[in-house]
Amino acid sequence: MSTLTLDRAPEARRAEPRGQVTFARVLRSEWIKMRTLRSTFWTMLAAVVALIGFGILFGAVDANRWPHMSAHEKATFDPIGTSLQGFFLAQLAIGVLGVLMISGEYATGMIRASLSAVPRRLPVLWAKAGLYAVVTWVLMTAGSLIAFLSGQALLSSRHIGASLSDPGAVRMVLGTGLYLTVVALLGVAVGALVRNTAGGIATVFGLLLVLPALAEALPSSWADHINQYLPSNAGQSLTALHHEAHTLAPWPGFLVFCAYAVAALAGAAVLLKRHDA
After folding, report:
1. Contact indicator for 93, 132 with CB cutoff of 8 Å
2. Transmembrane residues, as ranges (predicted)?
3. What is the pLDDT of residue 17?
4. What is the DSSP letter of 208?
């Protein structure tokens, strides 16, 4: 080996990217953590079962009730929404797991190791949020499609089923997956903001369930203007067949819901960057 080769060897070793922290490696690390946690499997399974199971259940119940329904009930019956009602329970499981994705690391102290390995910090948050959003979108979109097809198979016995070619059907099926994906992002953001599992879960439940109930107690002149801009009400407009009075149109409503999630993630990023773990 020549002297020139020896002189260049340390420089070559320094140039090796073996220990470099890249976003791809952060993603791989977060994926290993997510898929090896039992809570991930069981919570996602619960969400899928709720989405599909309630679609089948409501489809069977309404098919049996159809001959006994009043004329008004038949006129306002929504076969598509009936088979997708399981999203209401699925959103709770998705929101809880989103909180656990990051609050669990604060509870165990593992967040310090994660942030020590990734000194820039923010890639950890983006990796957690991005991975969970992709997994949620894939599973919940598939689940909503299965729920729709299963529910319509039961309703078709009374000739009241719908198909994907019906107006609004594709939007509602895909919208259910999109809505639950944004719920996932909101859960991760709240977990990063609150840094406490119980507090994070309570906050998510409050945003999705309690706020709409409290707003209903307001005078109608106020409630009509406020309700449509609440997070869950705005997001769920994408899963509604008809645009009712005092509600946002489907896509504008969904964009409002996305804005809540983006604002929460931005706040979580600022907090993560400025404060110690």
Report:
1. no
2. 41-61, 87-108, 129-149, 169-194, 201-222, 251-272
3. 53
4. I
